[in-house]
Design brief:
Largest sheet: 5 strands, antiparallel
Radius of gyration: 42 Å
CATH topology of the largest domain: SH3 type barrels
Number of domains: 3
CATH architecture of the largest domain: Roll
Shape: rod-shaped
Distance between the termini: 118 Å
C-alpha cells in the first residue's frame, strides 16, 4: 500500500556483476575495497595544492621591491651620511638650497658658512648637499 501512495516502484538490489552496481559503488563486480581506475574522458581527480606555493608570488614581489627600491635607497642614505661626516672646516660646500660657501665652523648639528662678501650664515649639517673640490672651484 505504501508503494501506491508514493508512486515510485520498489527498488531491487543489483546483482554483483551488474553495470549499475559498478557505477554506484565504484568497484568492479560490486566487491568492496577494489578501486576502478578512471576511464579516458573522465574528469581528472582534484590535485592537492602546496600551501607554500601560494606564498611564492608574494615572496618574489618582496624580493623585487627590496632589490629595486629599498636597497638602493639605503645605499644612497649611507653615502650621504659618509659625506656629512667628511665635512671639515675650510671645505667649500653647496647647500641643498644652492648656496655656495666655505665652512668657517661646525658642530654636530650646525655649520657656519662664510659667503663671498664675508657674510656668515648658520645652517643645519644635513643641509649640505655636496663638497666642492678645488678643481671645480677654479
Amino acid at each position: 500500500m505504501a508503494e501506491e501512495i508514493t508512486g515510485n516502484p520498489p527498488v531491487e538490489p543489483a546483482a554483483p556483476g551488474d553495470a549499475n552496481n559498478m557505477a554506484e559503488t565504484g568497484t568492479e563486480g560490486g566487491q568492496a575495497g577494489e578501486t576502478v581506475p578512471p576511464k579516458e574522458g573522465a574528469a581528472p581527480q582534484e590535485k592537492k595544492t602546496n600551501p607554500y606555493g601560494m606564498f611564492l608570488p608574494l615572496i618574489l614581489i618582496f624580493a623585487v621591491f627590496y632589490f629595486l627600491l629599498i636597497r638602493p635607497q639605503k645605499k644612497k642614505e649611507q653615502q650621504r651620511r659618509e659625506l656629512l661626516d667628511q665635512v671639515r672646516k675650510g671645505d667649500k660646500v653647496v647647500t641643498i638650497g644652492g648656496i655656495i660657501g666655505e665652512i668657517s665652523s661646525l658642530t654636530d648639528r650646525e655649520v657656519v658658512l662664510r659667503l663671498e662678501d664675508n657674510t656668515k650664515i648658520r645652517i643645519t649639517r644635513s643641509a649640505v648637499s655636496k663638497i666642492i673640490g678645488a678643481e671645480e672651484n677654479e
